[in-house]
Write a structure and sequence with these properties.
By secondary structure, this protein is of the alpha+beta class. The chain has a domain at 33-114: Nucleoid-associated protein YbaB-like domain (Ybab, Chain: A, 2-Layer Sandwich), CATH 3.30.1310.10. Helices cover 62% and strands 15% of the residues. It has four helices and three strands; from the N terminus they run H-E-E-E-H-H-H. The chain has a three-stranded antiparallel beta sheet. Strand 1 and strand 2 form a beta hairpin. Helix 1 crosses helix 3 (68-97) and helix 1 (3-31) crosses helix 4 (106-114). The relative contact order is 0.17.
């Protein structure tokens, strides 16, 4: 009769452990760095493993040209490139956390348990 309660307790314990692992993973991802670029490297965006922008570097020749429209095109492209690389890094780390098991929706579920969004 109470066997089901033991199973629920076990599941809750595992969920708490996974939440702790996710929190640790997110802290680790904050220390990782990726670089997204656009315009053959004329604009670079450095982001952490969570996809948060850390720094932006703009080639001096781009500024000298005073081409606002080009700069406005290259910045979002570089930001998106950095975000995609951060997402790939996050997915790679999630694979190691889940033991290589690729379960649909697992990343989103575990991201919610860790308290931080993966993107």
């Amino acid at each position: 009769m109470f066997k089901g309660l033991g199973d629920i307790g076990n599941i809750m314990k595992q969920a708490q452990e996974m939440g702790g692992k996710m929190q640790h993973l997110n802290e680790e991802l904050k220390t990782k760095r990726v670089i997204g670029s656009a315009g053959a490297g004329m604009v670079e965006v450095e982001a952490n493993g969570l996809g948060e922008a850390i720094a932006v570097r703009i080639d001096a020749t781009l500024i000298e040209k005073q081409d606002r429209e080009l700069l406005e095109d290259l910045l979002p492209a570089a930001i998106n490139s950095a975000r995609e690389k951060a997402q790939a890094l996050h997915a790679e780390q999630m694979q190691s956390l889940t033991g290589g098991i690729n379960l649909p929706g697992m990343s989103e579920l575990l991201g919610g348990l860790g308290g931080d969004s993966p993107t």
